[in-house]
Design a protein that fits this description.
The complex is a heterodimer of chains A (418) and B (129). Chain A is an alpha/beta fold and 418 residues long. Helices cover 39% and strands 15% of the residues of chain A. Chain A has 14 helices and 15 strands. In chain B, a hairpin with a 6-residue loop joins strand 1 and strand 2. In chain B, helix 3 packs across helix 6. The chains are: A alpha/beta (418), B alpha+beta (129).
Chain lengths: 418, 129
């Protein structure tokens, strides 16, 4: 056991909190109850320290300088990539470091998609996708005249109807692109079950893992995915950063969509050949400090233990699901009924109090939640909602945070029922 | 600490619960949708204007938070008899005055949706006529 756990081996959020300086601040004079980690996670001090240390002691342009400091920067960057790959359970040689998960998903759609999709081909996504895993597919299917089809959601709960997949696979989709954990529903996609189904009709599986990797154990190779995108800032890393894992044979066949420095083998005035492997997709100076931060975030999440993080978050979500209907009786909870089928978050709507009003009222108690469509407008349309409120939890979420949430919900009810 | 109570004071809640001029006009001169893309608030503003560009009737419908719906409702009470070019000059200070409170940066887009949609409607009407 470590400093972050109880004697029984559970995560102790009170101890974990101490690692995040921002949680001791009082924005607007109130103690901070940060329940918006699904939008961006808070950063542990050691991540910030790792960035500072790199910039203060090893800062140079990686892959370039023929001097000691340059080698130190290169080594730090590549070690950070390797640490991140270990965290995700993939070989470092297949992990492309990019600016964001959005960039990663656009790379799949624009590089693999444009080369492999043609007229009449089918791309399958769910109706619940984050815009980042929807719009790139809208764009590429429109460009090549392919068809975009959808795994539907339940009109009331929003839950993705995975039992429809079988029928949709008769369309023989070339690729199925889905979120590992829905950023609105909190539901966990049954990847291990659907990957073989998709592969059996010759399709590939692309996964948006933004809401999964920091909230539960994820070994990408074991998911059955062919592409897997992730975001650094949802893991406690910096805003700039994310990446794409792709199977080696897919990566080898893909063309870069961004070109420039650092991704070449040989450049002549009228043409160029490109570097091998992941470097081909990393045009320009790499975000060495951001990648160092990401590696530190991975290190910290491993120290906390992702199973322990998940167990803690499920306990927090169980309480939210249990007490939300008492605090706000007309709350319509989206996604799975059981916290065990979720990772990290609960969204809900209320006819009495609109999500934005709720967020404003909760802010008075220092409670930060997300209100809006969470970059999933089509899902909200499907549910006939203009917005929902989202509570998301993290290793540092405490019962005191939830106490403040429920107090705030009762405030809102009082205001709107008067 | 008074900020939230002021924001959600009775007048605003009343306009939210029973918005004025809510519905549709039989023969609007113009009907325009406005949406707040970051949060999904939606308003349809319908205006009837005479040849001199004076607003003679107004109706709105929509869905969204109390602030967006109440400020649209408050605005529609003021529109009849106003000239189109008066409306296009209005901005945040006017809406703040209508609501009787500074809304703050996090929610100002909600408060402005009704006015901005009205201004969009007027621009559309001008292009048509």
């Amino acid at each position: 056991m470590t400093a972050w756990h109880t004697p029984a081996g559970q995560l102790d959020p009170a101890k974990v909190r101490a690692a995040y300086p921002i949680l001791a601040t009082k924005p607007g004079g109130q103690p901070l109850h940060y329940l918006d980690s699904a939008a961006t996670a808070q950063r542990p001090k050691r991540v910030i320290d790792a960035v500072a240390e790199f910039l203060l002691t090893a800062n140079a342009n990686p892959h370039r300088g023929a001097y000691t400091l340059g080698s130190m920067a290169t080594d730090a960057y590549e070690a950070a990539r390797t640490r991140t790959a270990t965290f995700l359970g993939v070989p470092a040689t297949e992990l492309v470091m990019l600016g964001s998960a959005t960039e990663a998903l656009n790379l799949v759609a624009r590089s693999w998609g444009k080369a492999n999709l043609s007229r009449g081909d089918v791309v399958l996504v769910t109706e619940a996708e984050h815009h980042a895993n929807l719009i790139p597919w809208q764009q590429v299917t429109r460009e090549v005249d392919a068809d975009l089809e959808f795994i539907p959601v339940d009109d009331v709960t929003g839950e993705i109807l995975w039992d429809r997949l079988d029928g949709l696979l008769k369309l023989r989709p070339k690729i199925v692109a889905i979120g590992h954990v829905s950023n609105v529903l909190g539901s966990i996609a049954p990847l291990a079950q659907i990957a073989p189904q998709i592969h059996s009709v010759g399709g590939l599986l692309a996964v948006d893992g933004c809401q999964a990797v920091a909230n539960m154990p994820v070994n990408i190779l074991e998911t059955g995915a062919d592409f897997y995108a992730f975001s650094a800032h949802k893991m406690g890393g910096l805003f700039s950063g994310g990446g794409l894992w792709a199977r080696a044979n897919l990566l080898e066949a893909m063309a870069p969509i961004e070109t420039g420095g650092d991704m070449i083998r040989e450049v002549r005035l009228r043409d160029a050949t490109f570097a091998e492997g992941t470097q081909r997709f990393e045009a320009g100076t790499p975000d060495a400090s951001g990648t160092v931060a990401l590696a530190a975030a991975c290190e910290f999440l491993d120290e906390l233990g992702r199973q322990q993080i998940h167990d803690h978050e499920v306990r927090m979500l169980e309480r939210v699901l249990r007490e939300l209907p008492e605090a706000l009786p007309d709350a319509r909870i989206l996604g799975p009924k059981s916290a065990k089928d979720r990772a990290g978050l609960v969204s809900f709507s209320s006819d009495l109090v609109h999500a934005h009003d709720l967020a404003t009222i909760l802010d008075r108690r220092g409670v930060a939640i997300r209100a809006g469509h969470h970059c999933a407008m089509p899902l909200h349309e499907q549910l006939e909602l203009s917005a929902s409120a989202r509570v998301s939890v993290a290793p540092y979420t405490t019962d005191e945070d939830l106490d403040a949430l429920f107090e705030g919900l009762r405030d809102a009810r009082k205001i709107f029922e008067r | 600490m008074g900020g939230v109570d002021d924001l959600y004071r009775e007048q605003i809640l009343e306009h939210h619960r029973t918005p004025h001029n809510f519905g549709a006009l039989e023969q609007p001169s113009v009907s325009t949708d406005g949406r707040n893309p970051s949060c999904g608030d939606l308003i349809t503003m319908q205006l009837k204007l005479d040849d001199a560009g004076v607003i003679t009737d107004v109706a709105f419908s929509g869905r969204g938070c109390a602030i967006s719906q109440a400020s649209a409702s408050l605005l529609t009470d003021e529109l009849r008899g106003k000239r189109a070019d008066e409306i296009t000059e209005l901005g945040t200070p006017y809406v703040t005055e209508l609501l009787g409170i500074e809304v703050g940066p996090a929610r100002i887009h909600c408060a402005l949706l009704g006015l901005e949609t009205t201004q969009k409607a007027i621009a559309t009407w001008r292009n048509k006529s």
